[in-house]
Specification:
about 375 residues, alpha+beta, OB fold (Dihydrolipoamide Acetyltransferase, E2P), 3 domains, 6-stranded antiparallel beta barrel, 3 helices, 24 strands, about 25% helix
Length: about 375
């Protein structure tokens, strides 16, 4: 049996033995319109994105082009170096003992032969005195035996033995006097005391390094050149050095020595270049060094930014290449470079003087891509 009754908000049909069933109501007009607008807006965004991608892909890329030029090219290899004194000494006493006096400090100027320290020489001095006393006695015995032999009282052999003992005593005096000098430490060269590693009262071992002295009159650059570049370095090659302490100056020198044995740990070879006497560079400064390994007068030059590189190989840039504009499109050409600087790069092969090269090619530029040359 069915009866009708009013229910709040809707019309319900009540059946005996069954739960009331709600009749579905259509969504409000405003919500349906909002959903339709959202779908339409999403479609528009997708179409705009697709259109932008299509436009980006097929639209010609605006590029700046230049033609290669001719000029001098200087090829160099990079190295790091340090300023050293050519005349340098690390020294101390040749005997062990207790230091009684230190006469210089770091920064003091000394001359060759100046006394810089003394060790306790009381025992050495006692040996010298004993040897001199023995020499005095031996000389007196020799003189007495000479007088007796002249009188015919003493045999010649006895006199010769006395003279031999006198000579041995004289040699002992000379030896102990020389050893006494070892207790006085002298400067081996004229220069400045760079380090002092001892204080009065300390006991030092024989040949321990007590002082370091360097002459500031002659300096050099000691650079470590990578073993991959050392084959191109020659004696007399120009060097340009840059120091952080003098950022606006370039210090020039020439290679004066190439060590023939490299360091297997760092895989570098030591290259030295003497500096002029009036150089501002100070001992111990680190410098960035460019060693010239080649110079060419009529080289083919391009802007350094026009050269791109493939994936790196062994920590070095990959194979170089460039883009050349040809008939409204770019053509990728593999090149071989020589000297490369911050502004210009030398192209040894793969490019001609008449080619229109792309300067600073954008990342999305690829072989065959349509381009538009900027005015």
């Amino acid at each position: 049996m069915e009866t009708e009754q009013r229910a709040t908000g809707s019309l319900a049909i009540v059946r005996s033995g069954a739960a009331p069933a709600r009749i579905p109501q259509p969504p409000p007009v405003g919500r349906r319109a909002w959903r339709q607008g959202l779908v339409l807006a999403s479609a528009v965004v997708i179409m705009l994105a697709l259109g932008g991608a299509w436009w980006t892909y097929f639209q010609p890329v605006a590029v700046a082009v230049e033609h290669p030029t001719r000029g001098p090219a200087i090829e160099s290899v990079y190295a790091t170096g340090v300023i050293e004194a050519i005349d340098y000494a690390r020294f101390g006493a040749t005997v062990a003992g207790r230091v009684t006096d230190v006469l210089v400090d770091e920064g003091d100027a000394v001359r060759k032969g100046d006394v810089v320290a003394r060790l306790d020489d009381s025992q050495a001095l006692a040996r010298v005195r004993d040897a001199r006393a023995r020499l005095t006695m031996a000389e007196a015995d020799s003189l007495r035996d000479q007088t007796l032999m002249n009188r015919g009282v003493l045999a010649v052999q006895t006199l010769e033995r006395a003279q031999q003992e006198r000579d041995q005593a004289a040699a002992a005096v000379e030896l102990f006097a020389r050893q006494l000098e070892d207790y006085t430490v002298l400067a081996p060269l004229s220069g400045t005391v760079m380090k002092r590693n001892v204080e009065p009262g300390e006991t030092v071992a024989a040949n321990a390094v007590l002082f370091e002295i360097a002459s500031t009159a002659r300096k050099r650059i000691a650079a470590e050149v990578d073993e991959r570049d050392i084959a191109g370095v020659r004696l007399g090659a120009p060097i340009a050095a840059h120091a952080d302490g003098f950022p606006d100056e370039v210090f020039e020198a020439k290679v004066t020595n190439i060590r023939r044995q490299g360091d297997s740990g760092s895989r570098t070879f030591r290259v030295e270049a003497d500096l002029p006497a009036d150089t501002k560079l100070m001992i111990g400064m680190t410098v960035d060094v460019d060693v010239v390994v080649g110079e060419r007068e009529n080289a083919l030059l391009v802007p350094a930014g026009a050269v791109a590189h493939g994936p790196s190989l062994g920590g070095r840039p990959g194979a170089p290449y460039m883009f050349v504009v040809d008939g409204g499109r770019v053509r990728r050409v593999d090149v071989k470079t020589g000297a490369v600087g911050t502004a210009k790069a030398e192209v040894v092969s793969g490019l001609s003087d008449s080619d229109a090269i792309v300067v600073d090619p954008p990342d999305r530029l690829a072989d065959g891509k349509a381009v538009r040359v900027k005015p």
